[in-house]
Design a protein that fits this description.
Elements (H helix, E strand, L loop, with lengths): L5 H8 L6 H32 L2 H26 L4 H25 L4 H29 L6 H30 L1 H20 L15 H13 L2 H17 L6 H8 L4 H23 L7 H21 L3 H29 L5 H14 L1 H15 L1 H36 L8 H26 L10 H21 L4 H4 L6 H10 L30
Helix pairs in contact: 2-3, 2-5, 2-6, 2-7, 3-5, 3-8, 3-14, 3-15, 4-5, 4-7, 5-14, 6-7, 6-11, 6-13, 9-13, 9-14, 9-15, 9-16, 10-11, 11-13, 12-13, 12-16, 13-14, 15-16, 17-18, 17-20, 18-20
Protein name: Macrolide-efflux protein
Subcellular location: Cell membrane
Main location: membrane
Length: 537
């Protein structure tokens, strides 16, 4: 088994930082994102303080995110034709201008809710171009494509680390100095990321053509998504989570003050807890060696997110709410980053910008409609009931995505295999596996004998006993695999066969004589099959 000492493990988790350009981006963007999260929390608190209306919270969120729904596909076309490096610098400068105007208005006391709506709309336009371009730009900062997944996970770690620090600081600053200071700090924080971008040395990217035919580019991108089952289903699941799930953040001020009886400190703790969960999720993804298995993670994290939203909506205890926010942050981050990694791995290079723009539409562009819808629901039926509905819809969407997972695997596994992500199997590994496979086969036959022998009634144990025996044998096989210290490739082979053991142990119908099983029909013969390379996950 491949063991790493802690220092080696940390280097492996942070391996994308060995690239100079990515290190510059990581440090500069990390400082800037802290200011961004401070501004976001301060803006929500200021809106609710001025209006005391959940509907206006939804309107502000709608204003900041609706441009992504309209303009992100356009940004994706330009990202595939223009210099992404120059575009990222331009969007960061415009975001600094917006934060500066917001700080001046807030500190002067002249700010109104209409100023906030207009400035949120302006920032939404900037982000509509910034997000897909910045997501596409990541691949230019890492030299090896196998490190792309790690870079995306570290981006998520950076984003959610700032999500932990920023709101916590903002809650304390708002309580003592007001919202304007948070806006000012955000404006200053851009002085870290812009010089970092200017210090990069980005090689010239070869593009097919610098002429932009907007209509043709959009049609080509949508046609590509429509004909790609994995991309289509992943974007649909992400859109549902964004529409019905992410709107929980709009109502956090309502829960912090009216449901939990707190103030800006409580709001900061709630947002910070989600940031901690997201950081743990990002570290978990960064420690993974391969993109293989991310489809199952999307199902797990989406279900965790939906359950967390439902329990949070019913909670009236701050500690329980913080715990649920931790799970919500973990689930949302893992689901989003896993989807991003799969998309960036399988997409063609000349369509990367457009696919990332549709990713931004699904993740950010759909969110304003969900925020407005949730705000309207909360105004009529209350914030808790609104979030119960949202969480339930997320769970239903997760079930539907799970049913489509086999279709997705049929498409992506050949792509992974072509890219060399499945290690080759040699004869030595296969020979080493034979004793364990033999042990599993014998165990399976014994279970079938206990389960189906009609003449020997004394061996007809209850179903619960047979299930316990099955689980015990499965656990023993997995334990032996660890003790044998086989390489990662081999450890993926035999556990993938264990469901076959369990299914046949419960549903097999062999003859009475175990010795005759090998000569009986295929339905009665216990087998342990070694999957091919394309079916290891």
């Amino acid at each position: 088994m491949n063991r790493r000492i802690p220092s080696q493990q940390m280097k492996f988790v942070m391996r994308a930082l060995r690239y100079r350009n990515y290190r510059l981006f990581f440090v500069g963007q990390g400082i800037s994102l802290i200011g961004t999260w401070m501004q976001q929390l301060a803006l929500s608190w200021l809106v609710y303080r001025l209006t005391e209306s959940p509907l206006f919270l939804g309107i502000i969120s709608f204003s900041s995110q609706i441009p992504s729904f309209i303009l992100s596909p356009v940004a994706g076309v330009y990202a595939d034709r223009w210099n992404r490096y120059h575009l990222v610098i331009a969007t960061q400068c415009l975001a600094m201008v917006q934060a500066s105007i917001l700080a001046v208005l807030a500190l002067s006391g002249a700010i109104t809710v209409w100023h906030l709506i207009i400035l949120s709309l302006f920032l939404g336009i900037v982000n509509a171009f910034d997000v897909p371009i910045r997501q596409s730009f990541v691949v230019e900062m890492v030299e090896r494509k196998e490190d792309l997944g790690n870079a995306i996970a570290l981006n998520s770690l950076l984003f959610n680390g700032a999500r932990l620090i920023g709101p916590t600081l903002a809650g304390m600053i708002i309580a003592f100095a007001g919202e304007g200071i948070c806006f000012l700090i955000n404006a200053i924080s851009f002085l870290a990321v812009i010089p970092a971008l200017l210090a990069m040395k980005i090689p010239t990217r070869i593009v097919r053509s610098r002429r932009v035919y907007l209509k043709v580019g959009l049609e080509e991108g949508y046609h590509y998504v429509r004909n790609s089952i994995p991309i289509r289903y992943i974007l649909m699941q992400l859109s549902l989570m964004s529409f019905m799930g992410m709107s929980y953040a709009v109502l956090l001020p309502v829960f912090a003050r009216d449901i939990l009886g707190g103030g800006p400190h409580s709001l900061g703790f709630l947002v910070g807890a989600a940031g901690v969960g997201a950081m743990i999720g990002a570290l978990f993804l960064a420690s993974r060696e391969s993109v293989i298995g991310l489809g199952r993670l999307i199902v797990f994290s989406s279900g965790l997110f939906g359950i967390g939203v439902i329990i949070f909506s019913l909670s009236k205890v701050l500690l329980l709410s913080i715990l649920m926010m931790f799970g919500i942050g973990f689930g949302l981050m893992v689901q989003m980053a896993s989807s991003n990694t799969i998309l960036q791995t399988i997409v063609e290079e000349d369509k990367r910008g457009r696919i990332m723009s549709l990713f931004a539409v699904s993740f950010m562009g759909v969110a304003p409609f969900g925020s407005l819808f949730t705000g309207l629901m909360a105004s009529h039926i209350g914030a808790p009931a609104a979030l119960v509905i949202c969480g339930t819809c997320c769970l239903l969407g997760t079930v539907l995505f799970y049913k489509k997972l086999p279709d997705i695997r049929k498409i992506v596994r050949p792509i992974y295999k072509e890219m060399g992500m499945f290690p080759p199997l040699d004869e030595d590994l296969m020979n080493a596996a034979k004793p364990l496979l033999h042990f599993t086969r014998r165990s399976c036959r014994y279970l079938l004998f206990l389960n189906s022998s009609s003449n020997l009634s004394r061996y007809r144990y209850p179903a619960s006993t047979r299930m316990l025996l099955t689980a015990t044998i499965s656990s023993n096989v997995k334990y032996l695999l660890f003790r044998a210290q086989f390489p990662l490739t081999l450890r993926r082979i035999v556990p993938s066969s264990l469901p076959i053991v369990e299914i046949m142990a419960h549903h097999g119908r062999p003859t009475n004589d175990p010795a005759s099983w090998p000569n009986s029909g295929s339905m009665n013969r216990p087998k342990i099959l070694i999957p091919a390379n394309g079916a290891l996950t």
